[in-house]
Task: inverse folding
């Protein structure tokens, strides 16, 4: 037995031998902590009900997580319960704390049982902690194994959750996590499961074709631009290709013309470029045909 296990066993024995609080003492300690932040009262209250965390941890051991971690997580839930408990609401602290301890352990199990997030909403959480029980009861009531779809429908009806959620959870809990870097088999030397994943990035052929098409378009636009008269070419460059495009007014001042004349020249230049690009496309299609 390891030192951690021995320490945990001593802690469990000490916890189960702790004092039992009556309702009045429990209320007095809770008030002392809430109203005066009396740490001694908090310590006594937590120590008295640590047995709840120990007891609850035993119920969650079936998930295969370390018992001492479950106990620690239960104590965190117990401390959160002490922080939020209102002694004036008439409930016993033990009843209130039990819910927080259970919720804390459930969250711990779901975070640590798998590297894949197992439950992300209330329906999935309900499924995670109740599906195995319902599944076992249904299978024991049948002479043979139920078909997967029928089993999912029965579980969905029993737990009042969508059947799609049941099918998703059955798939998640069908087996343990496997590393993508694990070998596919003993015979497949050097081949890992990750090698079977499809690359969702652009294919090499598409990348090359895309680059060739972009280069062709640049060449066509450059040819159309260079075919313009110098003043129109200057306007197009300054208005559409410069890092800081010029305004019609700025170009009018620089060229000694009105901004309306600059606008007319710009429209005429762009129309000429569009016509030349269209003609180039027609010629290319004819050459291909």
Result:
């Amino acid at each position: 037995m390891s030192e951690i296990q021995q320490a945990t066993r001593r802690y469990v024995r000490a916890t189960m031998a702790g004092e039992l609080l009556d309702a009045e003492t429990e209320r007095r300690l809770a008030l002392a902590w809430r109203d005066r932040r009396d740490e001694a009262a908090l310590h006594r209250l937590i120590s008295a009900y640590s047995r709840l965390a120990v007891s609850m941890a035993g119920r969650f051991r079936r998930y295969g997580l370390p018992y001492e971690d479950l106990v620690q997580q239960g104590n965190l839930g117990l401390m959160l319960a002490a922080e939020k408990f209102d002694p004036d609401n008439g409930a016993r602290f033990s009843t209130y704390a039990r819910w927080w301890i259970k919720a804390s352990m459930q969250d711990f199990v779901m975070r640590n049982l798998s590297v894949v997030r197992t439950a992300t909403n209330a329906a999935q959480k309900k499924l995670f902690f109740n599906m195995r029980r319902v599944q076992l009861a249904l299978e024991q009531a049948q002479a043979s194994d139920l078909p997967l779809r029928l089993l999912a429908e029965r579980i969905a009806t029993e737990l009042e959750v969508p059947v799609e959620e049941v099918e998703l959870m059955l798939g998640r809990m069908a087996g343990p996590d496997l590393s993508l870097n694990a070998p596919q088999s003993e015979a497949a030397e050097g081949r890992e499961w990750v090698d079977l994943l499809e690359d969702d990035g652009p294919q090499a052929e598409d990348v090359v074709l895309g680059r060739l098409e972009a280069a062709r378009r640049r060449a066509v636009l450059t040819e159309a631009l260079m075919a313009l008269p110098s003043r129109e070419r200057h306007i197009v460059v300054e208005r559409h290709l410069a890092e800081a495009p010029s305004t019609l007014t700025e170009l009018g001042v620089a060229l000694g013309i009105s901004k309306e004349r600059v606008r007319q020249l710009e429209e005429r230049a762009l129309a000429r470029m569009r016509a030349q690009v269209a003609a180039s496309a027609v010629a290319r299609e004819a050459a291909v045909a």
Notes: The chain has three domains: 3-112, 122-172, 205-288.
